[in-house]
């Protein structure tokens, strides 16, 4: 059987070409992603940066707290509180210490990620003066990069806007943009101590720190205290989030392509199977032949895919870095290490298993056919629905309906998590592809009915051919269905989710004008105070902070917004279900209904600065997605400097009755000039938020759609080439019946158009199920929101699929006609 399988591959290489290409690309992608994941499990040691010259660093931290599982800027409670006076006293008893404070400090016109420090810690991070002197007074600073000595500059911090003199210029280290103050000024601007550089004996320091919420870092571990570690880990987690989505979609699509290709190839070889069975070949030998073909194709394709994956890993890494997902230093270096060899071996084995698994059903079906039945099936096609296909299709459809229902009614938040949601889009589309033969008859009659009443035999021939070869029609329509269906589902979901987020942002506030950062990461309290001083203008500048509530034995982390109680109801559209927003004062809190607290109930909260507060619930509101935060009175604004950075991301403006809005806005513009803030309309805010929030979602889902389209286009070309190449008998019959070459090609082109039409209709039906469930989920999350379908992109994908289908049908037929169709008997 091995020799027969080898000869079959040589004679029918066209039938297996698409399978080989799909396997090569699929295995290459699995290998590349495996190499990336392997590299992430064996990351190179990143050198210490800010404390590279420090002998030991005392770093407050919670060992069970993973920054990647929290919002950007959030610290663990231990890190938020920082070095407590008790811990400072214990470490100071072991020897000299230097307090490190890291806080937002940006020179006007400088980069938005500038950070302030005390000059006393500069030497531990590799900073050296290149000009001038260290800060001699509290209004002196040292900056990195080009600057003019003696220049007076404006410096933005979270609490104020001050004027300082550039006393010195220090070397740029590359890992941060720093602004250095005197120790006293740094302590005034940021009371919290981030870490301690301990200069005493390390063992004594460890003994002093034992039993506290802090760790002593030495050597390579000092990098844990660098701000870049959290940024790098978040970027790597984004990479980990993207890769499984790509792998699952690519793997599922590749398996489907390989399985359908092998099944279709066996169906087309019914006459060969019949002859083999007639001369005494046993069912076991037939199965062995088919599986041997699959093993040969799988081994060759997988080996080529592994080689391609080695180079593809580097390209994929550069692509992810260029998109801003992976950190710039991340790389994959081929070497004879487990991190490289294991992913490559898994990719090779996966390719072979996919090939054998894809051919298993076809082999089983080929082996069951008796000689006389095989000869009969060679002349007459059946419905294409075997018991196994009914079972898989029905199970897939029920699974798809279950997933859609669960997403819509059980866990609507899943649509916002691509790792969980994108794979669920596959089930309805794949189930429809499996059940496609059932729909071939009705759709063929529907699509050809308008043309059967016209003159000529083309429509009649196309209709009869499709109805008498439903298996072939379904097999050739399946790639079109996958291409259009998955593109429509994935891209429609991406755009609809983004639109729902925008709609949610618009629904949160009634403010006509908004104050937003201009070249800064947020709004300082000084800028907000200037706006509040404008006559007739009310401003609500929510500052994001963190509060902790106790849930049995654990502390539960929750987001909260610190706002001015007097203006909360002026700009926020909250669906209050109990109480009133006007009840918010220094001793109360407004909570979402998801916190399950009753109006008037008391709650004890732990704040990010280590203090506690007892608050009474003044109002409860129904929270939609993105709104599930508590509202605290403005007396808690200081805690935000511990939990986040103390900056407001935006401020909403409202106007007192009788105020001239135009004049007031101009007054606000004048007030915030030079403060790192600007005034925008609500529409302009939505547009800027849209651009920011859509990046990673678009990258994830559109990269997945690109993979789907690539694999499905391969399937379209491969399946139609196989189908057309095996229809030389039909070509001969048409020619012997008197049809011209143009008429023959017209029939084949019309069949191709019919196949495309069937595939597109089934794709729309499957996508309608996906998008319908998505729409219900988005309404439950964000309120009324439209579905957004990128019609130009979908139409382009459909047009490309149609052109590929037409060329893959007409060109082989034209080539066969040029060679001469021959007689029916010889064919």
From TrEMBL:
Similarity section: Belongs to the ABC-4 integral membrane protein family.
Name the UniProt record assigns to this protein: ABC3 transporter permease C-terminal domain-containing protein
GO molecular function: transmembrane transporter activity
Membrane spanning stretches: 242-267, 294-316, 336-360, 390-409, 421-443, 473-494, 704-723, 744-769, 789-817
Keyword Acyltransferase included in the entry's annotation: no
Localization, UniProt: Cell membrane
Membrane topology value: Multi-pass membrane protein
Top-rank taxon: Bacteria
GO cellular component terms given for this protein: plasma membrane
Residue stretches making up the ABC3 transporter permease C-terminal domain: 246-368, 704-818
InterPro entries for the chain: ABC3_permease_C (IPR003838), Macrolide_Exporter_MacB (IPR050250)
Keywords: Cell membrane, Membrane, Transmembrane, Transmembrane helix
